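Memo to structure team: turn this sequence into structure tokens by end of day. - J.P.
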Amino acid sequence: MSITAGYHKIKTSSGKYLTLLGAAGNVTAQTASGATNQTWDVQPAGASTYTIRNVGYDTSTYAYSAGQNGSAVTGSTSSLEWSIVNSSGNYFFLPGSDSSLAWNVQDDNSVKLSGKQLTNSGQQFTIE
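Reply from structure team:
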């Protein structure tokens, strides 16, 4: 199943929504609030990659990470291409340059890159 370009909510397996806390803040999992910082504009960037821009802030605030294991996913004016992989109805977000890492919701609800594990519920998302 491919991703339709446009505005989406990204929901964690625990029912929370990915939220950008400030234009250069961290991406965290939060209870649904209806705020625009829980809405993401997903647009194709390449054959199988996307840019993911937060709608709640400046038009150039993208999901970004340094691309290393343990790096936080944050807001940035630098865009980064992400692979969005569907596995059994769940989506995994991988930095376009490294398919061994994936977004992972931590115990404190922050989102960081971790080693990709398709069975890890912290790495499983739905797109609404």
